[in-house]
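Readers of this paper often ask what the protein records in our data store actually look like. Below, we set out a record of this kind in full and without editing:
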Amino acid sequence: MIVSKLMGGLGNQMFQYSLGRRLAQDRGVPLKLDVSWYQDRVAGDADTLREYALDGWHIRAAKASAEDLAQFSIGKRLLGRLGLVNIAVLREQELGFEPSVLDAPHTAYLTGYWQSEKYFKPMRSVLLQEFTLVSAPCAHAAGLEHRVRESDSVAVHVRRGDYARNRKTNAYHGLCPAEYYIEAARRIANRLAKPSFFVFSDDLDWVRQNLKLDWPTTYVVHDKECSPHQDIWLMSRCAHHIIANSSFSWWGAWLSPNENKVVIAPSQWFAHAQYSANDLIPESWLRI
């Protein structure tokens, strides 16, 4: 059994699921998801409150029970370190790819963010099938999907929200400036005959005031009842991508089946340059 501890928002959960899914399939064992991080969160925490969200996709995993988690108790972990039982608790040590994690035993508990396709790229075809919508998209999203498929569509994700409001989150992640998006749009437009930009954001008012593009632009607005999964799905239907420093649009770009897609990502992913994103950004993507 492989257990993945889930933390953070939807994009983070997708990374954590993907590594666990690969290890479980390679070993022929079930994947379980530890969702206790969400149950333990309370209002007033410095980090943004999140909820378990993978049930919007066709995933192949169950939530871990108390009995499942008991296999990784302090006593069992000690026996594992002594080599008396074949279990492991694997904690992410750094931001980059850690290849030793792929040598995990058949019974392992994973805790980390694991933000690199190197952990699960061999599983791409499986993940493309599983990260599909459980519920049909709303009529508005379905209509937009037809438009993006019929054009030289470019998904643009402007992440603000907690990146702008939450002091701790802002200090760690920072914000992509309008100049980044304008330059990225210019570079993609130079490659396309008739680019059409579809802008996704949690702060469209800011976008309309600060991000002026010289090409046809659609601001993607949904009803409040629409799930965030629909935005990732709709992004993935676009031909090309300008992503934010966000796992949310990372997945929108990665799930795109377009073999000729142009993906532009920010060269500085975190607020502080000493944090490297070299393993996070696929080699075929452009960084500016």
Q: What stands out?
A: The first helix runs from residue 10 to 27. The radius of gyration is 20 Å. The chain has a mean pLDDT of 91.
